[in-house]
């Protein structure tokens, strides 16, 4: 009679452990913090897009192959996004000549009417486009902002940051991929 | 651009990348079905709409402290047997968040939005429905969710 009890106890233990694992909800920082980037072999290709910037110039992700890209989904109504944008301006200045760029995808429903004044005011020095539903779907459905994809020189997604993370987290990713 | 996903596999892939974040996104703000509002001839009807925001999240108030923020707004169909006269929001909280230099005017937790109605001229008597829309935009300390609109169906009994 002790054997079935032991089996039940083991099963119960496994079930409890599994449920505890499901209940664990790490914070955004622990989710994306200073972990190593995704292994090269496990990285998915970043979907290409062709969208126009505020001046009507075509921005195509494929044109940046060979560069490290920080692809940032943001909106003018998103407070946490506004913290990150000055960092991205700084990264663009520091790392542009080393084979790096930021690309911003604004998801405001009002489009350029609100996005253009904002990027002009903030002196955004990297390409910004207004997103489409197609791009949103291609990137798996962006449900929270900011969402930033860190893309390696081969056009693969090395990390995804959802929510505000630290400037040093981004910088660490960029430096790892530029090395 | 509306932020939503129609790709199950895409959603699943992102959910694997950030399970804690996406697990929290649906249903941040809920509005229970309001009870039937009985409208007599003597007094103008008043509805107190209950609203609940998930702990850890907030929504901008009806009068955000920053111009770029999307305000909460309750609107009602004006073609029904009762018509909205005034919408009264609770006193907002001024809260400071990691992403803001100054405190922001927000709602969080459980609260009520009061709508004062007036009886339409010669309304049909008996049961009816009035539809309303509550538009809001919610964030937590680290991320924001896209603006959403909750549809409200208010059962009305005109006497």
Structure, explained:
The complex is a heterodimer of chains A (179) and B (159). Chain A is α/β, with parallel strands linked by helices and 179 residues long. Chain A has a single domain (28-178), classed as 3-Layer(aba) Sandwich (Glutaredoxin). Chain A has helices at residues 2-23, 28-32, 79-95, 112-121, 133-138, 167-178; strands spanning 44-45, 50-52, 58-60, 68-74, 100-106, 128-130, 147-151, 156-162. In chain A, the strands form 2 sheets. Chain A has a 6-stranded mixed beta sheet with strand order 1-8-7-4-5-6. Chain A has a two-stranded antiparallel sheet with strand order 2-3. The N and C termini of chain A lie far apart (62 Å). The relative contact order of chain A is 0.20. Chain B has 159 residues and is mainly beta. Chain B has one domain: Immunoglobulin-like (Sandwich), CATH 2.60.40. Chain B is 10% helix and 43% strand. A 4-stranded antiparallel beta sheet of chain B has the order 1-3-9-6, with no helix packed on it. A 4-stranded mixed beta sheet of chain B has the order 2-12-10-5, with no helix packed on it. Chain B has a 4-stranded antiparallel beta sheet with strand order 7-8-4-11, with no helix packed on it. In chain B, strand 7 (93-95) and strand 8 form a beta hairpin. In chain B, 30% of the residues are buried. At the A-B interface, helix 2, helix 3 and helix 5 of A face helix 1 and helix 2 of B.
């Amino acid at each position: 009679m002790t054997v079935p009890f032991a089996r039940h106890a083991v099963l119960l233990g496994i079930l409890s452990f599994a449920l505890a694992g499901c209940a664990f909800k790490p914070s955004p920082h622990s989710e994306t913090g200073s972990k190593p980037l995704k292994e090269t072999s496990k990285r998915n290709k970043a979907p290409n897009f062709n969208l126009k910037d505020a001046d009507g110039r075509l921005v195509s992700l494929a044109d940046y192959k060979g560069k490290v890209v920080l692809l940032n989904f943001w909106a003018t109504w998103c407070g946490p996004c506004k913290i990150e944008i000055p960092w991205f301006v700084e990264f663009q200045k520091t790392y542009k000549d080393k084979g790096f760029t930021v690309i911003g995808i604004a998801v405001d429903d009002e489009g350029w009417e609100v996005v253009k004044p904002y990027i002009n005011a903030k002196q955004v020095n990297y390409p910004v486009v207004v997103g489409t539903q197609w791009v949103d779907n291609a990137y798996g459905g962006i449900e929270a902002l900011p969402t930033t994809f860190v893309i390696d020189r081969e056009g693969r997604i090395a990390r995804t940051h959802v929510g505000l993370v630290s400037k040093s987290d981004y910088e660490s990713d960029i430096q790892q991929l530029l090395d | 651009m509306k932020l939503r996903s129609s790709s199950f596999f895409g959603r699943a892939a992102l959910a694997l990348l950030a399970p804690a974040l996406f697990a929290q996104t649906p249903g941040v703000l809920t509005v229970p079905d309001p009870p039937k509002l009985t409208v007599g001839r003597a007094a103008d009807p008043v509805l107190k709409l209950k609203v609940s925001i998930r702990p850890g999240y907030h929504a901008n108030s009806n009068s955000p402290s920053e111009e770029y923020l999307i305000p909460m707004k309750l609107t009602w169909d004006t073609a029904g047997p009762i018509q909205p006269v005034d919408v009264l929001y609770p006193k907002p909280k001024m809260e400071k968040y990691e992403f803001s230099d100054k405190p922001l005017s927000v709602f969080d937790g459980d609260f009520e939005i009061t709508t004062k109605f007036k009886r339409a001229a010669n309304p049909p008597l008996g049961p009816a429905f009035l539809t309303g829309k509550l538009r809001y935009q919610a964030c937590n300390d680290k991320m924001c969710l896209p603006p959403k609109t909750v549809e409200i169906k208010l059962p009305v009994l005109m006497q």
